[in-house]
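[Discussion] Sanity-checking designs against the backbone

I'm trying to build intuition for which residues belong where. Below is a structure token string of 314 positions. I'd appreciate it if someone posts a full sequence so I can compare it with mine line by line.
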């Protein structure tokens, strides 16, 4: 009898231990392991979501604009340059570059800025073209910087000369024309222009280097020079040394003439072999080039010279 009771007691103790172990395991699973797994899943889910990223450039942009409002133009511009270099993906970069370009243009022609400018006294026999060629500048720049109201020069006149050491870089993917200025041995981004369209000649491989072969202006179907009274209203464009590349305003779409259907000719009395059908006229080739707004072309005409470098990159 005693042995039976001892065996029963051992059995009950064993069952209790097993049940307790199972209960403890279940509690650990439900309260610890399952919750940790759920937390890990939640973290993974949060990482997978496309949450909006914090733009670190916004505060830099606001601080730079505040400097400009305080009259610290150079400091504000330098801060915008640093913003564009350090945070190129910031949504403020486009506006920062626009402000930089406007500041640079204002300072280029400002009477208070003398950096790189020369005072030239007109000599007998001088012309605007000869002076522009001698000092690596443009006629448009001399007229604007000197405030000329007439194209007639007289010995002893004072002209403000600004050397135009600019060249153009074109990003095909971004559809941007970048105006770069060389100062000494260094070169920096001066201003960016957004292209209306860019169409390259078939087969052109990038990158490619070329130069500006000429500056053209047409008024009423005739070429005019910068001293012509109609020059201001003339259509202007740059021709490059590579065929099919020019910088100009977008071409105007022209309506194609529609031919009236002709009445069928009377059948010939004699049997004659049918005449060969004429080949269809080839479709007009789309104009190639780099197309900018008119006001941008006008501005560049004062800055870019014949012989200036033109670089095209992808």
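Best answer:
Here's mine. Compare freely.
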């Amino acid at each position: 009898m005693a042995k039976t009771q001892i065996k029963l007691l051992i059995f009950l103790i064993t069952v209790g231990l097993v049940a307790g172990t199972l209960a403890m395991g279940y509690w650990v699973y439900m309260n610890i392991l399952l919750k940790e797994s759920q937390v890990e899943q939640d973290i993974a889910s949060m990482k997978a979501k496309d949450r909006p990223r914090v733009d670190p450039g916004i505060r830099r942009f606001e601080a730079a604009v505040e400097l400009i409002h305080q009259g610290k133009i150079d400091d504000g511009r330098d801060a915008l340059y640093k913003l564009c270099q350090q945070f190129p993906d910031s949504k403020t970069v486009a506006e920062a570059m626009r402000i930089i370009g406007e500041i640079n243009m204002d300072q280029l022609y400002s009477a208070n800025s003398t950096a790189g400018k020369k005072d030239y006294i007109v000599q007998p026999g001088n012309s605007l073209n000869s002076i522009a060629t001698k000092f690596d500048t443009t006629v448009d720049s001399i007229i604007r910087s000197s405030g000329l109201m007439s194209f007639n020069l007289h010995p002893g006149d004072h002209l403000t000369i600004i050397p135009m050491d600019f060249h153009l870089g074109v990003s095909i993917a971004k559809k941007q024309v970048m105006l770069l200025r060389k100062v000494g041995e260094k070169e920096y981004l001066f201003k960016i222009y957004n292209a209306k369209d860019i169409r390259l000649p078939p087969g052109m491989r990038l990158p490619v280097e070329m130069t500006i072969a000429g500056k053209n202006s047409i008024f009423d179907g005739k070429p005019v020079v910068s001293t012509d009274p109609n020059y201001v209203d003339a259509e202007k464009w740059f021709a490059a040394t590579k065929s099919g590349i020019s910088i100009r305003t977008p071409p105007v779409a022209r309506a194609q003439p529609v031919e009236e259907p002709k009445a069928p000719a009377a059948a010939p009395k004699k049997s004659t072999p049918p005449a060969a059908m004429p080949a269809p006229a080839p479709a007009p080739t789309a104009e190639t080039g780099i197309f900018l707004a008119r006001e941008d072309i006008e501005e560049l005409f004062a800055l870019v010279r014949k012989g200036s470098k033109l670089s095209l990159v992808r």
